[in-house]
Write a structure and sequence with these properties.
alpha+beta, five-stranded mixed beta sheet, 3 helices, globular
């Protein structure tokens, strides 16, 4: 192989590697969550509920990820994200639900693997001002 062919092959390889790595979503930092308040958190038992209130419906996944990162005791966690307004005393304004399994107990309680999370936003829900 001559020097020109080797240089061309090296440039093509470098371009291909750059193209593959530049569009990866893994390279982006996690979104910063908006302000939220944990209004209820079970501290014992195999299944624990964590209720969170937000004032905006934006970046709910970031809120869930931030809350889930702080749940470290062996248990199955069920996270409820509600709007701070728009609900009633009997029915909250649920925006999203999530689960996290920590340890074997958490896995058995949630049906997820240890360390795994599951998040689902409620479609069509909004958070009034």
């Amino acid at each position: 192989m001559n020097r020109t062919a080797i240089t061309a092959a090296a440039l093509a390889l470098a371009a291909a590697l750059t193209a593959c790595s530049s569009g990866s979503s893994d390279d982006k930092p996690a979104a910063k969550p908006p302000a939220y308040e944990i209004t209820h958190q079970d501290t014992s038992g195999n299944q624990r509920t964590v209720t969170v209130e937000v004032k905006t419906g934006k970046a709910l996944r970031a809120v869930f990820d931030d809350v889930a990162a702080k749940l470290t005791e062996d248990a199955g966690y069920f996270v409820q994200i509600n709007c701070a307004t728009g609900g009633t005393s009997k029915v909250d304004n649920r925006l999203a639900n999530g689960r996290k399994a920590v340890g074997n107990i958490g896995a058995a309680s949630t049906g997820l693997d240890d360390g795994q999370t599951d998040y689902e936003a409620q479609q069509g829900r909004t958070c009034p001002a």
